[in-house]
Amino acid sequence: MARSRPTAALPTPAVSGRATGSVTLADVAKIAGVSPITVSRVVNQPDLVSAETVARVQEAIQRTGYVPNLLAGGLASRRSRLIAAIVPTIANSIFADTIQALTDRFSQAGYQVLLGLSGYAATREEELLGAILSRRPDGVVLTGIAHTPDARRRLLAARIPVVETWDLTPTPIDMLVGFSHEKVGHTLAEYVHARGYRRPAILSASDQRAESRRLGFLAGIGRHGITDVPSSIVPAPSSLGLGREGLARLLDGGARPDVVLCSSDTLAQGALSEARARGIAVPDQLAVMGFGDLNFAAHTYPALSTVRIDGPAIGRRAAESLLARIDGKQVDEPVVDLGFEVIRRDSA
User: Fold this and answer.
1) Helices (H), 159-239
2) DSSP secondary structure, 46-69, as one string
3) Which residues pair with 113 in a beta bridge?
4) 20-25 long-range contacts, Cβ below 8 Å, gap at least 24?
């Protein structure tokens, strides 16, 4: 009796591959029905290819499991297609909108963003830059303007475009998109004084930008003859718990403010909680100001008065500046001040 033979499985689309068996760009091109150069453009510069072709190539990439060799492409074009961005923290969302807008714009242009977290120490940023620059990014986005001398030297020696963000100076390393923290402090001083507050206090995180706002406020309110302004400084990054602790420290230390200026909405939220726990009515007995206009600020009780920063605009403008410089174009405005807006709500 003859034995029946097992039924053979249907063949999958054949790909040539190298001796290692890895899928090549040519394999993807064959399956997508396009040229290898078109596949390369979809991977590196998708904005130059029609949406229909991009979809076809991406489907072929998914079917084959192809992983683009960006390093090889970078060696040929002298580009890595990599952008490095360094932010202090993702513990709260104040930088999230900037990073999202930055990442979206670079993705459209065929670049990937490598995100580094520096904490709030310039020395940690220096260590990160040492690791990042060894990977030859095409550009770097930094948060703030306070860097160690070694970090500055490394960035200048790398000869790649750099954009500093979330701060302002007439002498950036290369380009800058941000706003003046000192001016924020001055503006808040005028805001609270115009509304009749005469006993201000400050609840601030220990980072350099928050300190610039604090000093700006002290200088501004001092012009109105108010020089006794107690401050409670808490470690960065901010948290609701630190906001409660910071306000408790002020009140337990004998301060009797009629308004407290917080260096972040997160600290301000904590201050609102501590005031409520102590039976202090906001704003009748104590007004509270925040900074950042985070997504919860309008929904606290009472709604939080704060300072709005256009984080997405900072990210988009920083990306556009870097892309222009990478493409060898001149940037007409190397220093861009996007300003800020005081948002008046119920808490102050």
Assistant:
1) 181-194, 208-222
2) GGGS-HHHHHHHHHHHHHHT----
3) 83
4) 22/67, 23/64, 23/65, 23/66, 23/67, 24/66, 25/66, 25/68
Phi, psi of 112 (to 5 degrees): -110, 145
Tokens of 180: 């003046």
Any bridge partners for residue 114, and if so which?
84
Contact 114, 143 (CB under 8 A): no
Q: What's the DSSP call for residue 148?
A: -
Give strand ranges (E) for 207-329: 231-234, 259-262, 287-289, 306-308
Question: In whole angstroms, what is the distance from residue 19 CA to residue 253 CA?
Answer: 74
Can you give the pLDDT of all 348 residues of the chain as single tens digits? 444 444 333 334 444 443 345 678 888 899 999 998 998 888 877 888 899 999 999 898 888 777 665 555 554 456 788 999 999 988 777 899 999 999 999 999 999 999 999 988 888 898 899 888 878 899 999 999 999 998 998 898 888 999 999 999 999 999 999 999 999 999 999 999 999 999 999 999 999 999 999 999 999 999 999 999 999 999 999 999 999 999 999 999 999 999 999 999 999 999 999 999 999 999 999 999 999 999 999 999 999 999 999 999 999 999 999 999 999 999 999 999 999 999 999 999
Are the CB atoms for 149 and 160 separated by under 8 Å?
A: no
Cβ atoms within 10 Å of 207's Cβ, excluding its own: 21
Q: How many CA atoms lie within 13 A of 347 on its CB side?
A: 30
Strands 175-178, 335-337: pairing kind? parallel
Q: At what angle do helices 122-133 and 149-158 cross, to 10 degrees?
A: 20
Strand-strand pairing, 287-289 and 175-178:
unpaired
Cα gap 176→322, rounded to integer Å = 10
Residues 6+ apart with CB under 8 A from 49: 38, 41, 42, 57
CA-based end-to-end distance of the chain: 95
